[in-house]
Amino acid sequence: MRYAMDFGTPTVTYRKTQTEAEVSRLFCAAVVSKRFRDQLLQDPASAIAQGYNGESFAFSAEMMERFCSIQAETLSDFAAQFLAHEMPLRVEIPIPVGVH
Question: What is the pTM of this model?
Fold first, then answer.
């Protein structure tokens, strides 16, 4: 995850990585299509390999292992298990001298 900070304004901008964008596309497809969602829950590897609505997904072997290790009956449980394996995010924000 990448963040950009401009000290002139109190704004933090988040830019998605390619993998995060693919994960978002996968979950969006599962939300809008019961058929895709059911297939994802039953056989993640097959669902991802077949894609959705003519679109394919591009995941690393490590990410595919992560998806395939999930055993869930609902999309909510699938998402929770996926997020449980996320690496903790550590954000360091430099504070200029004299700011309290």
Answer: 0.70
